[in-house]
Design a protein that fits this description.
single chain; 115 residues; mainly beta; OB fold (Dihydrolipoamide Acetyltransferase, E2P); five-stranded mixed beta barrel; globular
């Protein structure tokens, strides 16, 4: 992808391990949402010590990626591409929001070792 200096871009690519298998949730609206968390290491020398990780929440609302990611398991190495989104919703205690990667494409790179 070629970047143009004066054009906004919201594209994210992550390669990391799943902390848990993807989980389907049915929202109060009836919409179905699949969620999972990708754990990626921080590069050495980038704000923090080497060996630290970031755990990034991901959401899949539909499309072909949903069919393949349903078979992913905890510990699998995956690659996902999408956009950063801030989603607002209501909870019993009031309005809330979360930042997540809305996944538009994804693929399994390597299965987790089985015990």
């Amino acid at each position: 992808m070629e970047l143009v200096e004066d054009e906004p871009v919201n594209t994210v690519t992550l390669v990391g391990r799943l902390s848990l298998a993807p989980e389907e949730r049915v929202l109060p609206s009836g919409d179905r949402l699949w969620t999972f968390r990708v754990v990626v290491p921080r590069p050495a020398g980038v704000r923090g010590r080497a060996g630290q990780v970031d755990a990034l929440d991901c959401a899949v609302w539909g499309g072909s990626v949903r069919r393949s990611m349903r078979r992913w398991r905890e510990g699998d190495l995956v690659q996902v591409t999408g956009s950063v989104r801030r989603r607002f919703f209501r909870t019993p205690s009031g309005a809330a929001s979360r930042v997540e990667v809305e996944v538009s494409a994804g693929r399994l790179l390597r299965r987790a070792a089985t015990a």
